[in-house]
Write a structure and sequence with these properties.
The chain is α/β, with parallel strands linked by helices. The chain has a domain of 171 residues: Rossmann fold (3-Layer(aba) Sandwich), CATH 3.40.50.150. It contains ten helices and seven strands. Strands 3-2-1-4-5-7-6 form a seven-stranded mixed sheet, sandwiched between helices. The protein is globular. It binds S-adenosylmethionine. The site of S-adenosylmethionine has 20 residues, from α1 and α4.
Length: 248
């Protein structure tokens, strides 16, 4: 089966309620890990000047909801009609407005510079050519770009070797991890300046949820937060989670 068709089939099969509410029902430490990716990216950006954003591979609208609650009007692009239907319910239920567009990240159906910001969270690595899709984001965004994707990291290769990470995801795609240098080169070649990147450790596979639940409550949660911050201060630069932001 073609990779796009596999993605569509997989994302049609997910539990709708869980996707619509993600990450509300996740263990508190996992919510913190997801939030930390967004906060880290926005800290790198400095301040958000955009009042609208295209969420590429926006799925069931988690990224869009996060932006909408920070006064950024989102457009969600995804290849899965079921994901977009879930995003519509999420928006109605959680009080925000989003434009929904079915389309392929490899060929964004928008003219040049039609959004102030383009953002992707855990999407590009699903594609056969993630850097080609990055070019598309760089084309349709006018001012700001935010990329939050798995990093091509030595520790991830080790994690794959010991079975803690995979090279193929349940959606059937090879995990195409990205690196900051490759992204920087592509963006700078397309006229983007002020490219900044950071890496951190962020790990929350489904099997870890039962463990993370043990840190749901204070004071264990406070200890988790402290340990997590210290880990990333000391060694985050080798981490598996890449954020790259850019301004023109
Ligand atoms: C891991 S989910 C991430 C969703 C969302 N960004 C989030 O973090 O909740 C990956 C999403 O990429 C979408 N996707 C996969 N291939 C795509 C393509 N070629 N064009 C657009 N979306 C695609 C899938 O349908 C899915 O919704």
């Amino acid at each position: 089966m073609q990779s796009r068709a596999r993605q569509i089939e997989f994302y049609a099969s997910l539990d709708a309620e869980s996707e619509i509410e993600r990450p509300r029902h996740y263990p508190r430490p996992v919510r913190l890990l997801i939030e930390s990716k967004f906060h880290r990216a926005l800290r790198l950006l400095g301040h958000v000047a955009s009042t609208d954003a295209l969420c590429v591979c926006g799925g069931s609208g988690m990224d869009a909801e996060w932006l909408a609650h920070r006064a950024v009007r989102p457009t969600i692009l995804d290849i899965s009609p079921e994901a977009l239907a879930r995003a519509r319910i999420r928006a109605q239920r959680h009080g925000f407005t989003a434009t929904l567009v079915r389309g392929d990240a490899a060929r964004l159906p928008f003219s040049d510079q039609s959004f102030n910001m383009a953002l992707v969270h855990d999407g590009l690595h699903h594609l056969d050519d993630p850097y080609g899709a990055l070019d598309e984001m760089a084309r349709v965004a006018k001012h700001e770009l935010v990329v939050m994707e798995p990093a091509s990291a030595a520790l991830t290769r080790l994690a794959v070797a010991v079975g803690l990470a995979a090279d193929v995801e349940p959606a059937g795609n090879a995990v195409r991890r990205l690196n900051a240098t490759g992204i920087r080169e592509r963006l700078e070649a397309r006229g983007w300046r002020h490219v900044r990147s950071a890496r951190d450790f962020v790990y929350y596979q489904p099997w870890t949820f039962a463990i993370y639940r043990m840190a749901d409550r204070l004071p264990v949660f406070a200890v988790f937060v402290l340990a997590y911050r210290l880990l990333n201060l000391a060694s985050g630069r080798w981490g598996n989670s890449l954020k790259v932001v850019a301004r023109r």
